[in-house]
Amino acid sequence: MFFQFEADFVDSLRCIPMVVRYKLDTCGVKLKLSHWHQLSLEQRQYLTEASCETPTEVSQYGEKLQNWITQLTGKPASTLSVPDLPDWLNANQIPAQILTELNNKLPSLESSGITLTQWQSLTPLQRFALIKLSRAGHENRNFLLAIKEFDLMPS
After folding, report:
1. pTM for this structure?
2. Contact criterion met (CB below 8 Å) for 48 and 13
3. pLDDT reading at 138 higher than 90
4. Which bin fits 22, alpha (ψ -120 to 50), beta or left (φ > 0)?
């Protein structure tokens, strides 16, 4: 459920793990880290473990989370628009930002980085993690760790 590159914080759930970030983007809730810290450990654990795949589960997940945030802060969390086909569910196209980040981190690569076959072999959660870790303005310190963990390092 958790990635190895998250090992330094998942035991305490002090940061929002990728699996929860994936579910947040799936249900369209923008959860701030300050909101996350206000949730109980049991609530964080629920958000980590609860299924958020079917339309009903996605709706229930978002509603439950918004109820909790409203109870804690007096107002719901911001919402995100959810595209019909998010990049992490599109196995037929590697987002350019991932290839750019790979070239930035490993400029000596003579290949084009990740192949489409490699991209297609990843789970949606793995693709989501690479997208999030390659965002402009993001610290990106775990990007190469994820590339290695997902066996995408060029030989």
Report:
1. 0.90
2. yes
3. no
4. alpha
Is the pLDDT at 108 greater than 90? The verdict is no
Helix/strand/coil (H/E/C) assignment for every residue in the chain: CCCHHHCCCCCCCCCCCHHHHHHHHHHCEECCHHHHHHCCHHHHHHHHHCCCCCHHHHHHHHHHHHHHHHHHHCCCCEECCCCCCCHHHCCCCCCHHHHHHHHHHCCCCCCCCCCHHHHHHCCHHHHHHHHHHCCCCCCCCCHHHHHHHCCCCCC
Tokens at 80, concatenated: 């995100």
Angle between helices 55-73 and 18-27 (to 10 degrees): 100
Determine contact, residues 109/154, Cβ cutoff 8 Å.
Answer: yes
What is the rounded CA–CA span in Å between residue 24 and residue 50?
12
Taking the C-alpha atoms of residue 30 and residue 133, their distance in angstroms, rounded to an integer, is 17
